[in-house]
Amino acid sequence: SQTIHQWPATLVQPVGSPLSLECTVEGTSNPNLYWYRQAAGRGLQLLFYSVGIGQISSEVPQNLSASRPQDRQFILSSKKLLLSDSGFYLCAWSVGNSPLHFGNGTRLTVT
Amino acid sequence: GEDVEQSLFLSVREGDSSVINCTYTDSSSTYLYWYKQEPGAGLQLLTYIFSNMDMKQDQRLTVLLNKKDKHLSLRIADTQTGDSAIYFCAERNTGFQKLVFGTGTRLLVSP
């Protein structure tokens, strides 16, 4: 069966520090991969999605970037965090027209 | 562009039925989804419906789709305190690999 792993679960970082969140999927090949952000009390905002290795589509211009170095690995990064980057970051995967399946999320607090 | 809207809050008593509503703007949506998010967790897929269907029932859950009015609803029969969570509807367009989510409805079930 397929599983998705996100880490870390919780992260507290100072303003201006770098960020790296990692997501891996097991049990499937060539998945579509997604990064969503959920700000406190708000809905989900799609940040990036990828349909293959090295293929990244950005939905919202910001100081975040994403990379897909391997088929089942998706990384969210920032060189310098802003206070406004605080939120709950969710990774998800899908295959074809299947529903999205989400990881448990990373709670990021920028101080 | 695509837009999905939900009411923010719903409060019911244990044992009653809950109805969570969602409206969307994209007439070419192919699949519509309902996800559940418990505190501090990722999103769990509850059910989904293909756009050529009017209704889908799955145990205590009933999904109704009015494609003419672009209205989707989720009915939870015999609501339990464990159903307290945020419920998101989402729509997927033909040819697109991403989902657009609503703002989420917080369901509170009181004993």
Describe this protein's structure.
The complex is a heterodimer of chains A (111) and B (111). Chain A is built from no helices and 11 strands. Chain A has 111 residues and is mostly beta strands. In chain A, the strands form 2 sheets. In chain A, strands 2, 4, 5, 6, 9, 10 and 11 form a 7-stranded mixed sheet that branches. Chain A has a 4-stranded antiparallel sheet with strand order 1-3-8-7, with no helix packed on it. The relative contact order of chain A is 0.33. Chain B is globular and about 45 Å long. Chain B is 0% helix and 59% strand. In chain B, strands 2, 4, 5, 9, 10 and 11 form a 6-stranded mixed sheet that branches. A 5-stranded antiparallel sheet of chain B has the order 1-3-8-7-6, with no helix packed on it. The chains are: A mainly beta (111), B mainly beta (111). The A-B interface holds A 6, 32, 34, 36, 42-44, 46, 49, 51, 59, 90, 92, 94, 97, 99-105, 107 and B 30-31, 33, 35, 40-45, 48, 88, 90, 92, 97-104.
Please write the string of helix (H) and strand (E) elements of chain A.
Answer: EEEEEEEEEEE
Which of globular, elongated, flat, extended, rod-shaped describes the shape of chain B? globular
**Oligomeric state, counting identical vs distinct chains:** heterodimer
| Poorly predicted runs of chain A | none
Instruction: List the helices and strands of chain B in order.
Output: EEEEEEEEEEE
How many whole angstroms does the radius of gyration of chain A measure? Answer: 13 Å
Tally of extended strands of chain B? 11
Q: Count of DSSP helices of chain A?
A: 0
Percentage of β-strand residues of chain A: over 45%
Shape of chain A: globular
Number of helices of chain B: 0
Task: Count the E strands of chain A.
Answer: 11
Q: Catalogue the unreliable spans of chain B.
A: none
Q: State the helical fraction of chain A.
A: under 10%
Structural class by secondary-structure content of chain B: mainly beta
> Proportion of β residues of chain B?
over 45%
